[in-house]
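Our collaborator T.R. sent over the components below with a one-line note: 'Predict the complex.' Nothing else. No constraints on interfaces, no templates requested, no preferences about which chain binds where. So this is a plain run: every listed entity goes in together, and whatever single assembly comes back becomes the starting point for the next discussion.
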Amino acid sequence: MKKSIWLILISLCWASVGFGLDSAEIRNLGEGPASHQLQDPAEAIARVPAFVTDSRVRELMFYPCTNCHATGMVEPNSNVRQLEEMHSEVQLQHGGGRFWCMTCHSEKDRNHLTSLKKQPISFDQPHLLCGQCHFARQKDFFRGAHGKRKGNWKGERHLTNCTECHNPHAPSIPARLPRAKPVARTGHVVVPTEEHYTEEVWEQKAEHHSKKNPLGH
Amino acid sequence: MKFTNNQVDPKRRAALKVLGLGAAVGAGSLAASASPIPDVKTGDITLEDAWGEFFQQQYQKMSPTEIEDVLERLERTYEAKYDTKVQVGNAPPLEDVVFGYALNISKCQGYRECVKGCTEENNQSKDPDLEYIRVLELEKGTMNLETADPYYSNDEPVPKPGKFYLPVQCHHCENPPCVKACPVKATWKEPDGIVVVDYNWCIGCRMCANACPYWARKFNWSEPKLPVDRINPDTHYLGNRPRYKGVMEKCTFCIQRTRQGLMPACQEACPTGARVFGNLLDPKSEIRYVLENKNVFRLKEELNTNPKFWYYSD
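Returned assembly:
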C-alpha cells in the first residue's frame, strides 16, 4: 500500500517535470533575435520593428570591389600579411589578431560580405554581420538602445548603420577634443576642481582656514 | 515693525477708482478706433506693439485669436529687431504623447556636441553664452555632484581615463518644483510633459531657479546678444523664440521640433548615440525598451520630482 502511494507520488513528480520542461519559459526561446542560434544572419531582422538604414555602398571608396578583384586580375591571397600596395590604410585591430580579411569579406563574391557560415551579406547591412558575435548589441540596435535614430521620433525608423560610427577594422572610437567649455556667469570666476576643498578640514593647509572667501575676492 | 497699511484712506481709494476707470475707458476707446496710437517709433518697435506687449495676458489664459495677434506682433518685433523673418508657431501638444528621454552614460564621451547642437537650435544668448546642457565630468565609481566638474578643459582629449560624463539638462519632472515656486504662473507643465516658460509673463524673480535641483533654469542677466546670422527662424512661442533681458529660460525638449515629430537637437547632435528620445505612452518606442530592459536611474530621485529623464548604462 505504502509502496504504491510512493510510486504514484514519484510518477506525478516526473510528470510535472516533463510538463515544466515543455513550457516556453524553460526552453527560453523568447522572442529576441539573440535567443537561439540563427541559421542565416538575415533571420535576425525577421521579428524586430521595421527600420531603414542609409546605403553604405556609396560611401565605399573602392566599391564595386570586382573592379580589381574580378576573376584572374588579382589572385586571392588568404595569407596573413602586411598590406602594402593596396588597402594599406586598413590597420586590422578588430579581434586582436584572430581575424583576417576573409573572415568577413567573401573570397568568391567580392561585392558582398560573408557570414561565418559563408552566406552573402550586403555591404548595406553590416548589422547582420556584426551581430553574429555582438548579438546583444545587435538586439539593442534593433530596439533602439544602441546606435542612433535619425531625424524623427515617430514614423519611419531611420537608423545609423554600424559602420557609420565604427570603423569595422578598428571599431573602438579614439578619444578626441571636446567642444568649448562653458563660461562662468558675468562677475563670477570658475574655481578649478583641484581647488575645491575635497579633503577633510583637518587635512587642509592652514591658509585655507585663514582665507575668508574661497573665491579669493 | 509694520509693513502694511491695512487702514485704507477712503479718499485715496476713491481717487484710485476714478483713475483706474479713466485708464480702462482710455484703453477701450483706443482699442475701438482703427489706429488710435500715432505711428511713433519707440526704438525699432511701434508704440502700438509696445502697448500690446505690456498688456499681454498669460499664454494659457489667452483666446486663440489673442494668441494669433500675439504671434503676429512677435514676428513683427523680431523682424524689426533682427532684420530677419522669424516664424513664431504655437503647435499644440500631440494626442497620446508624453515625452521621455534616456541617456546612456556608458556611451557619453563628454564631447559637448549636444551643448553645441542645443545652442545652434534654441536661439540662446551667444555673449554671454547661455547653455541649457551642462556636461559634468565625474570620477568613475563616484556620484558626488558637488565635486563634479562642468568646466573640464577643452584642450585635452575626452574621455579622460578614470572619468565618466553626465550631461544634465531640464529633466521635465512630472512633479516640477519650479512650477510650484513660480509666483505668477509663468511656467507650467504641458499635457505632453514638457515644462515650459511664458517669457512674456515671467517677472524674472528667479524663484524657479532656486527650486530646481538640477540647475536646469538659466537666467538672462543681461540683454541676450544673438547675432543675426545665427538665428534659427523656425521658432515656437513656448520654445526657442528670442528671449528678453530679465527672463528665465530652459530646455524645452526642443518643443518646436518634437511637436512636429522630429528629434530634439541634442539627440541629433550627439555623435555617440547615447541619447534616446521618444513617446513614453507608446509601448513599442525605443525609450520604453530602454526603461524596461536597461539599468536606469534618475538624478536625485529621493526628491520625488519624478523626472522624465533617465540615465542608463550597459
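Summary for T.R.: The longest helix of chain B spans residues 10-32.
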